Amino acid sequence: MRNTVKVERAIRDITQQELADLVGVSRQTINFIETGRYMPSAIVALKIARCFGKHADEIFILEDGD
User: Fold this and answer.
1) What is the number of other CB atoms lying within 10 angstroms of the CB of residue 42?
2) Would you tell me how many other CB atoms lie within 10 Å of the CB of residue 18?
3) Could you count the other beta carbons within 10 Å of the beta carbon of residue 43?
4) 2-61 falls under which CATH superfamily?
5) How far apart are CA 44 and CA 64, in angstroms?
6) Domain boundaries, the chain
7) Do 20 and 29 touch, CB atoms closer than 8 A?
């Protein structure tokens, strides 16, 4: 699975820490999600999408083989 969290943050000019605070996770968690080292739970994915005013499947994209 790939994601566009870093791009969405850049568009809105918010830091990893600011997004983490909005979602209720650590900055490190946001970093791990952005770099693909951690797959967020459904709840975290939905919270991230809500912060960006998008649906979760617009932020988190399944790839062939997922």
Assistant:
1) 9
2) 15
3) 10
4) lambda repressor-like DNA-binding domains (1.10.260.40)
5) 23
6) 2-61
7) yes
Kindly report the CA angle at 32 between 26 and 37, in degrees rounded to 5? 145
Which tokens go with 20?
A: 């983490």
DSSP sequence for 1-64: -EE-HHHHHHHHT--HHHHHHHHTS-HHHHHHHHTTS-PPPHHHHHHHHHHTTS-HHHHEE--T
Tokens coding 17: 């820490």
pLDDT tens sequence across 37-66: 999 999 999 999 999 999 999 999 999 988
Contact 24, 30 (CB under 8 A): no
What's this model's pTM, rounded to 2 decimal places?
Answer: 0.93
